[in-house]
Design brief:
homodimer; alpha+beta; six-stranded mixed beta sheet; five-stranded antiparallel beta sheet; Fumarylacetoacetase-like_C (chains A, B); Fumarylacetoacetate hydrolase family protein (chains A, B); hydrolase activity (chains A, B); EC 3.7.-.- (chains A, B); FAA_hydro_N (chains A, B)
Chain lengths: 326, 326
């Protein structure tokens, strides 16, 4: 089942989207918003699935043409957004570029940060920044939306709490990060609003590609229309989506609608490209002594997509343009 | 005007509370929840104020007895919770206890962290922990709830975006903090659910005590029924509530219902006691070479309150007991 939130007020309007992303049906009689559906999933999901089946079989008379540009984020505002760094190749490159050792604990204890969740961008919303000197970067990732996760949930049990999967562009202001992290309390200014794929999907839509609580497909990124990367999101994911949820739940429960991100997808094979500019700049630093690829500038475009085995987009593409201003 | 959320479903039920905290009136015809009121404040506030005036003048026939034990947090789940460290005496003591220098930037650039906001505790909810060895601590603070704050809002303009003020117990797991902060991405495990005062109040309820965007009253803390501290929340607040909001808004807008905390209240005058156990332990370390006051254990009770000039509780008290388990 594929779900989206069309732009409407603060929380969007929940719709069921067809598998081929061509049509949608509004479901105000079932649940007004994505959060309302997540709050009462056991009761709401079967009703949404019936609509989805009709829609996919071509028997839903109310179907309308689906336009990703009308989408808000699946959760236009959420009660929680936590992001991991599950691809240690990325973390290793960061460290190597500044000649720092990788702490051994990083291979057993997931690195995660609490992000702001009051403002989530739709897939076609601009990346709006006040100052190009902040060093704006994309970070292409996979994220899951959970239901209520009890405190102390194990990684084995965590997957049962995954309700939906989607793509994220976790926008970062790279030049603000060093000073902010040096203060010791994580990110506040250097992680502005993230953007999400037009639709979020249930695990069954991922067919055999969801294995070991990882999504084994390439995440495809284009910058200004040119191929930028397609690392596989499953193969080198050190901590699975279930591991990340279990880590968070060690000391606290998670509320329905919590969004848990994977961190920037990264593979050791450099022919597969990258999912963020910082990684390209680190490789340039390691190989040539200094970065040469610039961060994002006004007018630059970013596209992030993931295709199924038949080359069809699963989540719809994130397509954003950088703009200067409010 | 004083508002509370009685326990009811995931988001509570908005009620108007009398100034003396003795009565309340439910207002389902005006707004079902606190978040709904904040989402449309310009339209909703005048209607709530009419109820408040009737209630305070004794002319509201629907008034019922107010019981803080029935209160959820004013926002039982919120779209944002960010906490500052605005009292630099506290930060200086932390540093001094481990013989570390205070970075000069700390006096001009507010230290803040993004917290989890999917699970906010009511004023009488237990502090529920899985392991006493985690070193559970209270942190008594003042927090404001904002409306929509545009990106780039100045400190001068920020106070116009303060809708409500309340008290917080920002529970911390002290023994998990060093390892977590050493990872560099802030708090995830070491800051479980925070608890909030029974009521949140508009600025006019603070009368002359709200000055220079600071709340100039002692915050009173008792531990197991014994006096623990009463530092003034205004006098030594290096960064005002407006400064903290403006800092957050430098790179991103804030959504209505964002909660911004002050950090642990702390004064240089040690006769005024403390608002957290860590500070007492730091002073013991500085004066005696080692801490002797233990962190919270199962059965310990914490009370946090603030009185007006006439000795009346403004927000109602936070009163929590530590329990082991889920």
């Amino acid at each position: 089942m594929k779900l989206a939130s069309l732009k409407h007020g603060r929380d969007g309007r929940l719709v069921v989207v067809s598998r081929d992303l061509k049509h949608y049906v509004a479901v105000p009689d079932i649940a007004p918003t994505m959060q309302a559906a997540l709050d009462d999933w056991a009761h709401i999901e079967p009703q949404l699935r019936k609509v989805s089946e009709l829609l996919n079989s071509g028997h839903e008379g109310r179907a309308q043409a689906f336009d990703p540009a009308q989408c808000a984020a699946p959760l236009p505002r959420a009660y929680q957004w936590v992001d991991g760094s599950a691809y240690l190749n990325h973390v290793e490159l960061v460290r190597k570029a500044r000649n720092a050792e990788m702490p051994p604990s990083f291979y057993t204890d997931p690195l995660m940060y609490q992000g702001g969740s009051d403002d989530m961008l739709g897939a076609r919303d601009p990346i709006s920044i006040l100052d190009e000197a902040w060093g704006t970067d994309l970070e292409a990732e996979v994220a899951v939306i959970t239901d209520d996760v009890p405190k102390g949930t194990s990684a084995e049990d965590a997957v049962r709490h995954v309700r939906l999967v989607m793509l994220v562009n976790d926008v970062s202001l790279r030049n603000l990060i060093p000073n902010e992290l040096a203060k010791g309390f994580g990110f506040v200014l250097s992680k502005p609003a993230s953007a999400f794929s037009p639709v979020a999907v249930t695990l069954d839509e991922l067919e055999g590609h969801w294995q070991d609580n990882r999504l084994h497909l390439p995440l495809r990124v284009w910058l200004n229309g040119e191929w930028f990367g397609e690392p596989n999101a499953g193969e080198e994911m050190t901590f699975s989506h279930a591991d990340l949820i279990a880590h968070l739940a060690r000391t606290r429960k998670l509320g329905a609608g919590s969004i848990v991100g994977s961190g920037t997808i990264s593979n050791k094979d450099r022919a597969r490209g990258s999912c963020c500019l910082a990684e390209v700049r680190m490789i340039e630093t390691i190989e040539q002594g200094a970065p040469k690829t610039p961060f994002l500038k006004a007018g630059d475009t970013v596209k992030i997509d993931m295709w199924d085995g038949a080359g069809k987009s699963i989540f719809g593409a994130i397509e954003q343009t950088v703009v200067l201003g409010q």
